[in-house]
Structures are given as C-alpha cells and as structure tokens.
C-alpha cells in the first residue's frame, strides 16, 4: 500500500523586519491596528517578479503610503525593510498588500491573481449598486485598515450573485466601486468621477488618465449623477491588480443597465497595459 502525504502550505508574510511562514500574526491586544483598524495600506500587482517593472508602479505605491503617514502624523517606516520584504514575497506571490502601523511597523502579505481574471476582462462582470449610508468608505482619500463599508458592500454583492459593488454618496451620485475607480464612455469620450466628489485617487486611475491625454483621447473628470449615468454607453472599473474590467450588467436597485463589453473603446484603456508590458520586457532584456 502506498502512503499518502498531505502537505499543508503555510502562508508567507513579512512583519516588522522579519519573514514568517505561518498563518497567524502576533499583535498586542492594545494595538490600535487591531482595535481601530489604524493602519494604512496599498495593494500592488508585481509584474514579471520585478518591483522595477513600469506597471508595478513601486514608487507610486510608496508615495501613497508616505503621503497618508505624513497627513496622519504617524511614524515613517524603514523603507529598506519594506523593499527587502517585498522582494522576499514576490518570488511566490504576484500581488502584495503593504500595510503600515502608526508606529512605523510594516506588514506585507501576498496573494494570487483571481482565477477568473482573464474571463472577467473579456466578458465583463455583473455590478450591484450599494445603498447609502451603510455601504461607504471613511477617509475617502486614504486606504486605511478600516475598510469595513466597502468590504460589506462587496460581500453583499457576492451574496446576490454579483461580482462588484458600486458605492454612492448621499445624493445617489456614483463614486467608485468597492475595489476600484469607475470609467464611463459615451460619444467619443471617457469619463471618470473627479477626486473632489470624495474618492480614492487610484494609482491605476492616474496612470490611465495620463495615458489617455498622451494619446489625445478625450477624458473628463466629472460628477456621476443618477440621470447622467443613464446616457453612458459603457462602464468599467480599474485598480492596480485587475487592470480594467468592464461591466456587462449593473443592477441599480431593480433597474438593470446592460452594456456591450466587446466595444472598441475598451481597447483604449487596455492598450496602456499592453504597451507598458512591452516596455518592461525590453528593459529586462537589456
């Protein structure tokens, strides 16, 4: 009889200057990160296992962390330790989540890309319009550990067989999704909600805006009112991990919006990632 070996894969993570291979982390019961969600974080996709790949946007993610730390008056971390920890983990994980505690401790954990990512990019997903005020983010300009409102919205969407939730303000204006920034297309022009309405200044969002300007493609940052949204020909969302994913259906409290996800305009956004992948390939060759 052949014996059967069962191997349990433990998670790898980096915490406070050390690499761990276990599924638990040790925090004080008085830690504000545990008690109040007092951390700031950023999530990045590491392309070709390189923090220097142009699509990884390492410097932009570190700048996001530093900006929040400075505005909160928290201690700056040891950036060299963060670089070291990230390099340990990228040999295993293509996605990293870097969190910083108020005293400057860093915690980096990894995860894998969604199994159905390519299918979602090609075929689109179903979106669900969340309700205000239960499903909302606090401190909208920052990614803090208190992400409960967005997380609850996404869990509720999944319960109802949707893949993403869309957050709104007190007037019903659309802000962002539970995980990314919104994009809309109509009459030869791209639109995305303005930062002034109270959304996260996504790194992927800023890169796409810059790309569209470079390509002389019309782009406008505006307010997404419920009536204006009805005129959009296509809606998608973006973040640093999934790149760009279109919506094929959005449930607006019982009213269904449907879209053709095969339209050519979507390629205007996707082309950015194709070009930057090529630049990263050439950089690695030379």
From TrEMBL:
Name of the protein in question: Aminotransferase, class IV
Domain of life: Bacteria
InterPro entries, per database record: Aminotrans_IV (IPR001544), Aminotransferase-like (IPR036038), BCAT-like_C (IPR043132), BCAT-like_N (IPR043131), Class-IV_PLP-Dep_Aminotrnsfr (IPR050571)
Listed GO MF terms: transaminase activity
A cellular component annotation (GO) from this entry: cytosol
GO BP annotations, alphabetical order: carboxylic acid biosynthetic process
Family according to the record: Belongs to the class-IV pyridoxal-phosphate-dependent aminotransferase family.
Alphabetically ordered keywords of this record: Aminotransferase, Transferase
